[in-house]
Design a protein that fits this description.
Elements lengths: L1 E5 L2 E7 L52 E11 L2 E10 L4 E4 L6 E4 L4 E12 L2 E12 L4 E14 L2 E13 L14 E14 L3 E10 L15 E10 L1 E2 L5 E15 L4 E14 L3 E15 L2 E14 L7 E13 L4 E17 L2 E14 L2 E16 L4 E14 L11 E14 L5 E12 L5 E13 L5
Antiparallel strand pairs: 1-2, 2-3, 3-4, 4-7, 5-6, 7-8, 8-9, 9-10, 10-11, 11-12, 12-13, 13-15, 14-15, 15-16, 16-17, 17-18, 18-19, 19-20, 20-21, 21-22, 22-23, 23-24, 24-25, 25-26
Length: 470
């Protein structure tokens, strides 16, 4: 239920919500990732007013609320300040990200909790001051609380300074049967971020510093790394031309260095790149990373590679095409060695008819070590949308994710092949902003050891919402 008692205030409430109509996530390849990956929030109940949480450190991330039993949110203005307060009772499930300086891992979130996320911001011209508070109270014992102020200051029209300081207090649930991370321990820590950016007509520059304490946790946010200090900066030039085909050339250099609490280097990067902008929203970029260094175990390993992308909006029937990737040396983090590999990704939209659109996402990633392929992974996703009328549409999505590995090249036991398929069909009929009918079907399958696709989840749903307008 949504209630708008005034033009600048809204109250949302829900009981036992289901979000089957929400479009599934575009899968990401995680075969060689050190830290948890980010997926955007798509559930409509959690989206309103959430732009207020656009702060340097992502302390609020509602995807951590996995199965809300009920929820209530108030968003609006109070004494000239914008605010939002969200409370939910989460039945649990899913996982909690346990951060670390060189990697993160997951702990099962098999417990109920009461979650609160609050934010207030007061604008002063282009600048603002604000504060954020999150609190997860775990039934049976345990909590994670984070609070602190932030500020954005524009001392000049071209200069902005951002800063955020946070304190966390955490007591782990005493559930070692679920995970070693749930040991009942208590910790208090801090997080600090500051940055400066300058944007002039002919150049732009910036610098930043970040210090995240060894035990800092934000269980209702997305902070997959802690116990580090990071400092860096960038400088870029802008050259404008009179050529319509190529209007902007922007070379840029960037460097940053990350250390742990003892001053040991975790990560070091220096890169140089060039960005081009032209007709039909043309964008091209090439960045050379000559020697990035990462700490893997007790060693520092290096890699050199090129990163690139190109995008263009060529025509009405093909409104967007983007291609990106990297090639060169890459570190095998799972086994602590260097190799060679690359990625390539394609996203495009095609409209063969005015009422029909196809959105495709294709990704490939591979890594070779010791003269053989360690793994290759792929994502193939196609979404078709047909607008039956101005009020109704049909959406069909199919996504296939696959990873092939060479177990003999891994130091720990691993599967040779993993794969899964997600499919969904949705029909929606929308009269206005909240008077909507949804009907749909979803089918998720995983590959078994017998090389069959077994049913993992299946759903058939019908939803109706109605707006009472006066």
């Amino acid at each position: 239920m949504k209630w708008t008692p005034a033009a600048d205030n809204a109250v949302d409430m829900t009981i036992n919500p289901d979000f089957s109509q929400v479009e599934s996530d575009v899968a990401q390849i995680t075969a060689n990732q050190r830290f948890a990956v980010f997926f955007p929030e798509k559930r409509p109940f959690f989206l309103e007013g959430f732009d207020l949480f656009d702060t340097p450190l992502q302390i609020a991330y509602t995807r951590t609320i996995t199965s809300p039993q009920w929820g209530a949110r108030s968003t609006g203005k109070f004494l000239g300040s914008a605010y939002t307060v969200l409370m939910t009772a989460d039945r649990g499930g899913g996982v909690t990200v346990i951060p670390g300086p060189v990697s993160s891992f997951f702990a099962p979130q098999d417990f109920k909790s009461l979650d609160t996320i609050a934010r207030i911001r007061h604008d002063v011209g282009r600048s603002f001051v604000g504060a954020v508070f999150t609190d997860r109270e775990i039934r049976g014992g345990g909590y994670n609380r984070v609070a602190g102020p932030d500020v954005q200051w524009w001392p000049a029209a071209s200069d902005s300074i951002n800063a955020e300081a946070l304190v966390s207090s955490t007591r782990n649930p005493n559930r070692p049967d679920l995970s070693p991370a749930w040991d009942g321990a208590h910790s208090t820590s801090y997080a600090f971020h500051t940055s400066w950016d300058r944007h002039q007509e002919r150049y732009d520059a910036g610098a930043f510093f970040e210090d995240i304490g060894k035990t800092f946790r934000a269980d209702l946010g997305f902070v997959p790394q802690n116990g580090y200090r990071n400092a860096g900066g960038y400088y870029g030039l802008r050259f404008y031309t009179d050529n319509k085909s190529l209007s902007l050339v922007r070379p840029v250099v960037l460097a940053d260095r990350q250390t742990d609490a003892n001053g040991n280097e975790i990560y070091r990067r220096g890169s140089a790149g060039i960005y081009l902008q032209g007709i039909a929203n043309l964008g091209m970029g090439l960045t050379w990373h000559p020697s990035e260094r990462y700490r893997v175990g007790d060693r520092l390993l290096s890699e050199s590679f090129a990163e690139w992308f190109i995008q263009i909006d060529p025509s009405r029937r093909i409104p967007h095409v983007a291609l990106s990737g990297f090639n060169g040396q890459r570190i095998d983090f799972a086994n602590g060695r260097a190799g060679t590999g690359g990625t390539v990704g394609l996203t495009t939209t095609v409209r063969p008819l005015d009422k029909l659109a196809f959105d495709a996402n294709v990704s490939r990633e591979w890594l070779d070590v010791s003269g053989a392929t360690l793994y290759s992974a792929s994502v193939d996703r196609l979404k078709a949308t047909y607008s039956v009328s101005a009020k109704s549409l049909v959406r069909i999505i199919g996504q296939y994710v696959s990873t092939d590995r060479n177990p003999s090249l891994y130091t720990a036991a691993t599967s040779a092949h993993d794969a899964g398929f997600q499919g969904s069909v949705l029909y929606s009929y929308k009269i206005n902003w909240q008077t909507v009918l949804y009907a749909g079907y979803g089918d998720d399958r995983v590959l078994t050891l017998a090389n069959d696709f077994a049913k993992f989840d299946r759903s058939l749903f019908l939803k109706v919402s109605y707006a009472i307008q006066r």
